[in-house]
Amino acid sequence: PFPCFLQELTTVRVQDPRVQNEGSWNSYVDYKIFLHTNSKAFTAKTSCVRRRYREFVWLRRQLQKNAGLVPVPELPGKSAFFVGSTDEFIERRRQGLQHFLER
């Protein structure tokens, strides 16, 4: 008989985009980042924060500084000329941020 080892799993979800300061010149969208893990490396098994796009840009830069030869995933584009509705753009960005964190 082989010992059973519990596989460590970590799931991350980008959810619930919210427009902050809507209608003002400094409006932005933030996203709920939910993390769940059974890894012993984490003291908290679940955590949840809200982050905006520019904080993902900061994170990517930090990863690039320390990545060496490991490629850092791309972020979704920051297009001011998106064709379609704002809701479509926000959803497409949410999916891109989700993909970035999964990688």
Automatic annotation (TrEMBL):
Subcellular location(s) of the protein: Cytoplasm; Endomembrane system; Endosome
UniProt keyword list: Cytoplasm, Endosome, Lipid-binding, Membrane, Protein transport, Transport
Membrane topology (UniProt): Peripheral membrane protein
An example Gene Ontology CC term for this record: endosome
Domain PX: 9-103
Signal sequence region: none
Keyword field contains Cytoplasm: yes
Single annotated GO MF: phosphatidylinositol phosphate binding
Membrane among keywords: yes
Pfam families assigned: PX (PF00787)
GO biological process: intracellular protein transport; vesicle organization
InterPro entries per the UniProt record, alphabetical: PX_dom (IPR001683), PX_dom_sf (IPR036871), SNX10/11 (IPR043544)
Gene3D superfamilies cross-referenced by the UniProt entry: Phox-like domain
Family named by the database record: Belongs to the sorting nexin family.
Protein name as it appears in the record: SNX11 protein
